[in-house]
Specification:
The complex is a heterodimer of chains A (106) and B (255).
Chain A (H helix, E strand, L loop, with lengths): L3 E4 L9 E8 L21 E8 L2 E7 L9 E7 L4 E9 L4 E8 L3
Antiparallel strand pairs in A: 1-2, 2-5, 3-4, 3-6, 6-7
Chain B lengths: L1 H21 L11 H8 L6 H13 L9 H5 L2 H4 L9 E3 L4 E3 L1 H13 L9 H12 L15 H12 L9 H7 L4 E2 L2 E2 L10 E3 L4 E3 L1 H11 L10 H13 L10 E2 L1
Parallel strand pairs in B: 5-7
Antiparallel strand pairs in B: 1-2, 3-4, 5-6
Classes of the chains: A mainly beta (106), B mainly alpha (255).
């Protein structure tokens, strides 16, 4: 499991625009580099990221080889209701990781 | 009375100004772009915090035949490791030479936990080092006043002044004589090692001061000294004395 750092406000007012931050430890190997032995290093990148609030998609992103290692994504959403935020990363070599965080809206 | 206080305040201000003038040292942080500075200032943006989180997990994880974790002896790192990074490299009596913080962690692993040593620059060693060094963030760098370190520190200073490599350059020529000017597109920093291990954007990873020093050796086309070798430790010792009193920034971000 890759290390993930999530930043979700502890409490939000209804209608407030909040910032969510999600960082994940991942090498984002482009597939264009060669190793010390001259062989091409196989591509190993994250392909997609999605954030869902109780199953409803609130943010998604596609990632490409040009994205730096340890991708950090920050985005805003309007806090309309409390629920569980689910963060999903998918990538090469069957990489899949899901993390959750509680969103409390007063 | 009020006038006297005013005079005192003026004197204090003047003294502070003189001190500021005397201390022309600046961290590499001051020369970074506002975006990179923001990345270091905010822990939720700092990619090094991913490694720190790994280090915190390793601190609690048992290792070796007795299954003891770092925390079993040292307890809460936030209290027990406060200030430790600021006083390394420190002298190790058994090896009869100075050791860096990373080596110290490794020695503790092999001697006390009787676990396998961690390879220099391995993710685990850097993570533990970053976690331990984070506990000294904001404290002034305080090299130990140990007479046994003096000869090593003096040799480190000689290395700093020694021209080497095909380019025949010494550390001081860039980092003292031409600091603040540009090398290619980058500002040459004064070379104060205040934030190691650092997350270097060029590396896209966490790396130690020794990795950075070896980069400079490569830059002047000199033979690379080995990790944990006495050359680099001596140089680190001198750099710690040179940066004495500057606040620890670990985990720093550098371009």
């Amino acid at each position: 499991m890759a290390r993930v750092l999530l930043t979700v406000p502890a409490a939000a007012k209804r209608g407030e625009i909040i910032e969510i931050r999600a960082a994940i430890a991942h090498p984002m190997e482009t597939g264009y580099r060669r190793g010390a032995d001259g062989q091409r290093l196989p591509r190993d990148i994250l392909r997609s990221f999605a954030c869902r609030l109780d199953g409803d998609l609130v943010f998604a992103a596609e990632l490409f080889p040009a994205v730096a290692a340890n991708p950090y994504l920050a985005f805003h959403l309007r806090a309309t209701r409390s629920g569980t935020l689910t963060f999903t990363w998918e990538g090469d070599a069957g990489f899949a990781q899901t993390e959750t965080a509680r969103l409390a809206v007063a | 009375m009020r006038r006297r206080l005013g005079v005192l305040a003026c004197a204090a201000l003047a003294a502070a100004a003189v001190q500021a003038q005397q201390d022309a040292r600046r961290s590499g942080f001051a020369d970074m772009s506002p975006a990179t500075q923001a990345m270091q200032r905010d822990d939720t943006q700092n990619p090094a915090m991913l490694f720190v989180a790994d280090g915190e997990a390793l601190w609690q994880r048992p290792a070796g035949p007795e299954g003891k974790a770092c925390a079993a002896c040292h307890g809460d790192a936030r209290a027990s490791m406060r200030g430790v990074a600021a006083r390394h490299p420190a002298f190790d009596a058994t090896l009869a030479r100075p050791v860096t913080l990373g080596e110290r962690i490794d020695l503790c692993r092999t001697r006390r936990q009787r676990a396998d040593p961690l390879r220099p620059e391995s993710a685990d060693r850097l993570a533990l080092e970053a976690y331990v060094a984070l506990q000294s963030r904001g404290l002034p760098i305080a090299p130990p006043d140990d007479p046994r370190l003096a000869p090593f520190r003096a040799r480190g200073e000689e290395r700093y002044q020694q021209r080497l490599g095909q380019l025949d350059l010494a550390c001081f020529q860039c980092h003292d004589d031409h600091a603040g000017k540009r090398l290619g597109g980058s500002v040459i920093p004064q070379g104060h090692a205040t934030g190691y291990p650092i997350y270097r954007l060029e590396w896209q990873a966490l790396g130690s001061l020794q990795r950075r020093l070896r980069n400079c050796y490569g830059g002047v086309r000199a033979a690379l000294p080995p990790f944990d070798g006495v050359e680099l430790v001596e140089l680190e010792l001198f750099l710690a004395a040179r940066a004495a009193g500057m606040p620890v920034e670990t985990p720093a971000v550098r371009p």
